[in-house]
Amino acid sequence: MFKFSIIVCVGASLLACSSHIVIEPTRVPITPQNETSAKTEEIIKPYRDSMTAIMSEVVAQADTNFIAQRPSSNLMNWVADAVFIQQTQTVRLSTPAICLLNTGGIRSSLGKGKLTLDDFYKLMPFDNTIVWIELPIEALDDIAAYITKSGGEPIANCKVDKGKLKLNSMREGEKTCMVITTDYLANAGDKMDFLKKGKIVNQTGKLMRDVLIDHAKQEGVLISNNEVRFIP
Amino acid sequence: MNRRKFLQNITLGSGAVLLSFNGFGQLLSSKKSSKLTILHTNDTHSNIDPFPSNHAKFPGMGGVSRRHALIQKIRQDEEHVLLLDCGDIFQGTPYFNMFNGELEVKLMSEMGYDAATMGNHDFDIGLEGFKKAKRHAKFSFLCANYDFSETILSGETKSFEIFQKGDLKIGVFGIGIELNGLVTENNYGKTKYLDPITTANSVAKELKQKGCDLIICLSHLGYNYPDSTRISDRKLAQQTSNIDIILGGHTHTFLEKPTIEINKKGKSVLINQVGYAGLYLGRIDIDVEKGVTSRRIELK
Fold first, then answer.
1. CB-CB under 8 Å, A8 with B293
2. In sequence order, which residues have a C-beta less than 8 Å from that of residue A49 and are 6 or more positions away?
3. Is residue A212 part of a domain?
4. Distance CA B103, CA B93 (A)
């Protein structure tokens, strides 16, 4: 590493001293060639062992790769369906309901084969919880506009077709719609400001990750659905 | 004449001139002891173990144990080392979900980190969760523009810290990102967000007045954004004075080498960021001269 310094001092006064420094910064890659620290390994080991023991539990199987890809994909559909089904399967709905999540919240794919707890922590590392928001029916247009702009988000029990949100089942004269989502989005995360137009009617406190794990266990072999739910 | 040669000549020339003055000769001879090695990370995101060997982009890279060994080696070779982190220590692997940041902070203490700033993900287990993890920290969290005074983190963080390295005084402070819209409100509670530019200017000025020879800002604002109105490290550099180096995070930007911006007073500010997950350790070796009031930094 070469460094050259020039010290230029005006007159005899140190106060006006300025320096010109040429530096060669580096970024050092950390690779398998680097040595390890025995002391550090010792600190990590008990944590790693107890984590591995828990995380290696097989939860379900996938007979194809599940990926998140806009505008619509099997993993986006699976995640939204999982939340929707787990939240509504024991509930008698008096208002229409949809599930709306965010593509950015799906943090990894699910590969074909055995799925462990670790896979679901990678898929959903955040401790986001599920909330139900009762939204004025007009605000569904905001959801459609948002998805049209973003290029696709995980949704269930509805479709966005050419700028319009269409519920799978909808009676005439409905004034509100339940949106099942996460506390992160309910607090206008990812700039879903329109969710603030509704009111939170149920803070389930249930972690979205746990909901996904429950659904995976219920299915045994994950159901892959490539239905296109966003048509630009 | 190429630049390096040119600079070399000038160095020799001015050295000769300076040596003819007694006081300045001493200044030159003390130069060796004023070399500072700044090591930095950002957005390590609970990556304790290396990436898997089949990782698409960074197979087998990273790992805290290797980082620690590397830092120890550098400490053997260099006398004055500052080890700094720019936030988002938490979130990204089950180590965080299972142990709530305890291991991350413990290992940073073990590696001898001098200071860190908080990133938005460091709020992910709430202020109480952060406070618990922080019990394992043997270093300071520097957050100048988060006002925690009405929260349980009151008194737990500092705006800045001054490190004495040989006869050098190094001022370090932290600037965080706006939490509203990025972090669930429950997780930051009554934390007040202060304007990053106003705060950075006033803290840097204070550090200058306290006689710091070098002023470093640990930032979690993000390197640069397409939206030109959004505050970033580059904007922060342009719109402030007295900061010499901004070490950044948040945008997971892999800079091959630092960027130089010109600040409000026409002086150079070095900006750096080293991606994420502890895949790289940033290293800046710099000769800091005592009594220098203006510094022009150039990259080789």
1. no
2. none
3. yes
4. 12
Let me know if residue A3 belongs to a domain: no
Which are the contacts of B151, defined by CB distance < 8 A and separation ≥ 6? B127, B189, B190, B191
| Exposed/middle/buried for residue B67 (C-beta within 10 Å: 0-12, 13-18, 19+) | buried
Please compute the mean of the pLDDT values over residues A25-49 and round it to a whole number. 96
Please check whether residue B114 is in contact with residue B149, taking contact to mean a CB–CB distance below 8 angstroms. Answer: no
Tokens, residue B70: 């590397």
What's the CATH class of domain B3-298?
alpha beta
Distance CA B144, CA B142 (A): 6
Give the per-residue pLDDT at A13: 39
CA–CA dist B215, B170 (Å, integer): 6
Indicate whether A36 belongs to any domain. Answer: no
Is the pLDDT assigned to residue A124 strictly greater than 60? yes
A66-109 pLDDT tens trace: 999 999 999 999 999 999 999 999 988 889 999 999 999 998 88
CATH classification at residue A155? 3.90.780.10
CA angle, B288 as apex, B287 and B289 as ends, to 5°?
115
A20/B72: higher pLDDT: B72
Closest Cα in chain B, distance from residue A203 (Å): 13
Q: Among candidates B177, B125, B101, B124, which has minimal Cα distance to B146?
A: B177
User: Mean pLDDT of successive 10-residue segments in chain B (300 residues)?
Assistant: 38 31 40 79 97 84 98 96 98 93 98 98 96 98 98 98 94 96 88 98 98 96 93 98 97 94 95 97 90 74
Q: Using the structure block, give the residue that is written with the tokens 């080890």.
A: B83
Alpha-carbon distance B256 to B56, whole Å?
20
- Kindly state the DSSP code that residue B193 receives in the 8-state scheme: E
Give the number of domains in chain A: 1
B65/A44 CB distance under 8 A: yes
Contact B295 A19 (CB under 8 A): yes
Report the alpha-carbon distance of residue B253 to residue B232 in Å, rounded. Answer: 12
Nearest to A161 by CA among A231, A226, A99, A98: A231
Instruction: Specify the pLDDT at position A145.
Output: 97
In a domain, A23, yes or no: no
Closest CA to B235 of B204, B205, B269: B269
Q: Is A93 exposed, middle or buried (0-12, 13-18, 19+ CB in 10 A)?
A: exposed
Cβ–Cβ below 8 Å for A44 and B285: no
ipTM of the prediction: 0.86
Cβ-Cβ contacts under 8 Å between A and B: the total is 194
- Is this prediction's pTM over 0.90? no
pLDDT at A205: 87
d(Cα A78, Cα A125) in Å, to the nearest integer? 17
For A144-179, how does the pLDDT look when each residue is reduced to its tens digit (9 = 90+)? Answer: 999 999 999 999 999 999 999 999 887 788 999 999
Q: Which domain holds residue A172?
A: 53-222
Name the closest residue on chain A to residue B13, using Cα atoms: A6
Per the DSSP assignment, residues forming a β-bridge with B174 are: B218
